[in-house]
Write a sequence for this structure.
């Protein structure tokens, strides 16, 4: 009985760990692919609290973009839901004279991509 219990307890954990490592590898590959696109200045992954967890930019730029874009994205998400409670924000795109900022939203993370629109 004890051996069977240990096996059933370990299998899901190992499976979850393998899934997590596969997910992390896929995320890394995707970020590298995005960063390699001509004109991309940087990428930032932000958690639900607005804390940057992965970036290709310097610290001060990352903190500035992550904080401000997290606030803007949460406000935009709230606005979309106020208009239609059955709807949700999935993507936000901002274009200024200097940059284009794209934010892809998820339940737990934001992916921010900053690019030079002229390139």
């Amino acid at each position: 009985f004890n051996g069977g219990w240990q096996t059933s307890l370990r299998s899901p954990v190992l499976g979850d760990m393998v899934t997590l490592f596969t997910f992390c590898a896929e995320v890394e590959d995707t970020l590298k692919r995005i960063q390699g696109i001509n004109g991309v200045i940087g990428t930032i992954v932000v958690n639900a609290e607005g804390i940057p967890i992965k970036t290709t930019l310097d610290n001060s730029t990352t903190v500035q973009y992550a904080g401000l874009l997290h606030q803007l994205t949460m406000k935009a998400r709230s606005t979309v839901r106020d208009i239609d409670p059955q709807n949700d924000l999935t993507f936000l795109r901002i274009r200024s004279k200097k940059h284009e900022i794209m934010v892809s939203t998820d339940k737990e993370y934001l992916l921010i991509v900053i690019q030079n629109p002229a390139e």
Summary: Strands lie at 40-47, 52-55, 91-95, 100-105, 109-115. Confidence is low (pLDDT under 50) at residues 1-14. Residues 1-35 form one domain.
